[in-house]
Amino acid sequence: MTPFSYSRPTSVADAVAALAEPGARLMGGGTNFVDLMRKGVEAPDHVVDVHGLPLGTIGEASGGGLRIGALVSNTALASDERVRRDYRMLSEALLSGATQQLRNRATTAGNVLQRTRCTYFMEPEYPCNKREPGSGCPAKTGFNRIHAILGESEHCIATHPSDMCVAMAALDATVHVTGSQGDREIPFVDFHLLPGDSPEAETVLRADDVITAITLPEASGASRNSVYVKVRDRQSYAFALVSVAAGIELDASGQIADVRIALGGVAHKPWRASGAEGLLRGSAPTEDAFREAGEAIVADANGYGHNDFKITLAPRTVALALNKALGLAQRATGDAR
Amino acid sequence: MSDPRTVGVSVTVNGEAHRLDLDPRVSLLDLLRLHLDLTGSKKGCNQGACGACTVLLDGERVNACLVLAVSCDGQEVTTIEGIGTPEALAPIQDAFIEHDGFQCGYCTPGQILSSVALMDEAARGLPSVIDVDAPPCSAAELSDEEISERMSGNICRCGAYPGIRKAIHAVASGAASTSRVASGAAQPATA
């Protein structure tokens, strides 16, 4: 680790001010950041440790949903009774990620800002356009089993590693930010960027922005009857090869009134599948319809060799997740009758 | 004059208060091992993947290698040295011996801390991905599958997992033998 100075601001305003220092970086739980500093991928001059700021509670949002403080731990968020009941896919996504030790320490905002686990990004002896713009992307022709099939560019085929963010994208969450120019709200689906020709820019955050909270809209049938299905190389403690957050709400006649689909492990950001949702809304929830929706998502997908299997795996995982969500929706409809 | 790069930190470890000035790069694990001479917590991968460094921070298990020591100001840490003593092992330590829960023993301190935390988490009704709807509300209700999932942050390359699961089952169900503690025959069986 290269030397750095360290501060513990006691307010969001102080944290924003501390970020004005050149080379300053924010640290929450540090579960990803400390690792990257040790590897030399991150080399901040100054670390602004916000772990102690009073942003660690979950409360009611003004619109009727939930307001999740930036420093709520993954464990606390996954275990929250309201989250388990009303936003089930979020709880499942969090619990399927990492380990209990990491979930205890990791924070909501830190989860949003975690970096890709692309092997070439993580190892500074390799070139990487994300770590060092213009140096190249060895992943395209290298070992790319975990890499992107959607939304990638010739400059970067890395995936976003978060499970939580996939559920947040499907649930229409909003990111709340405070910076030197004041407060603003960013729809979750617009928060992360596709690589394009500047893969080093991963989010719309400005240098002195601090995430203060994430809000979820009021619970709905599609948020309650929802699941997170994660396919990985081993049963536990592994990143997703492909993951799907899906939720379904049925109308009185058993047709799909609302449906949410987002994918992880396939793109540079959580991949909200709005087109596939559009195909399903208002139609009957059949196995064929689920499979067609999944196929539509990968219609423009590209494989790079080792990750070609994801083009087959993704639609199957979408269909599986939708089937599970349908089961919950039918149970809910049955319970209501 | 103090080094401008060092930061003051107060931590309580196994009930004992410490006040140190540290380079902010020092991890909680290195604070324990190198500054406080508590070498029970092991440095395995040093990247949060193996769990050998697991300690309790304010009662919750964390990977000590991924926590900066200076960020623990005002917090309480429990290490394997705070769980039991060679003369009076904690029930879970006894059960690890009884059920052959370790071989080389390198991962064992972390496994023990994780086991202690796991039983507390179950008692608090924390869910795992196995069952979000109906988490167990006591450690005694944990299935093998649940224990495996909840212990997945602790890697044992010797493969002592069946023994570790048995040890946790034994303590969680109240069936653990306390004879070793009573007889004073509780010597760690490390090679």
From TrEMBL, chain A:
Protein keywords: FAD, Flavoprotein
InterPro entries: CO_DH_flav_C (IPR005107), CO_DH_flav_C_dom_sf (IPR036683), Diverse_Substr_Oxidored (IPR051312), FAD-bd_PCMH (IPR016166), FAD-bd_PCMH-like_sf (IPR036318), FAD-bd_PCMH_sub1 (IPR016167), FAD-bd_PCMH_sub2 (IPR016169), Mopterin_DH_FAD-bd (IPR002346)
Single annotated GO MF: oxidoreductase activity
Entries under Gene3D superfamilies matching the protein: 3.30.465.10, CO dehydrogenase flavoprotein, C-terminal domain (3.30.390.50), Uridine Diphospho-n-acetylenolpyruvylglucosamine Reductase, domain 2 (3.30.43.10)
Domain FAD-binding PCMH-type: 1-221
SUPFAM superfamilies: CO dehydrogenase flavoprotein C-terminal domain-like, FAD-binding/transporter-associated domain-like
Pfam families per record: CO_deh_flav_C (PF03450), FAD_binding_5 (PF00941)
Signal peptide: none
Protein name: FAD-binding molybdopterin dehydrogenase
TrEMBL record, chain B:
GO molecular function, one term: metal ion binding
InterPro entries: 2Fe-2S-bd, 2Fe-2S-bd_dom_sf, 2Fe-2S_ferredoxin-like_sf, 2Fe-2S_ferredoxin-type, 2Fe2S_fd_BS, Aldehyde_Oxdr_Iron-Sulfur, Beta-grasp_dom_sf
Xref: Pfam families: Fer2, Fer2_2
Gene3D superfamilies registered for this protein in UniProt: 3.10.20.30, [2Fe-2S]-binding domain
A cellular component term, taken from the record's GO annotations: periplasmic space
Domain 2Fe-2S ferredoxin-type: 7-83
Record keywords: 2Fe-2S, Iron, Iron-sulfur, Metal-binding, Oxidoreductase
PANTHER family xref list: ALDEHYDE OXIDOREDUCTASE IRON-SULFUR-BINDING SUBUNIT PAOA, OXIDOREDUCTASE, IRON-SULPHUR BINDING SUBUNIT-RELATED-RELATED
The protein's name in its UniProt record: Aldehyde dehydrogenase iron-sulfur subunit
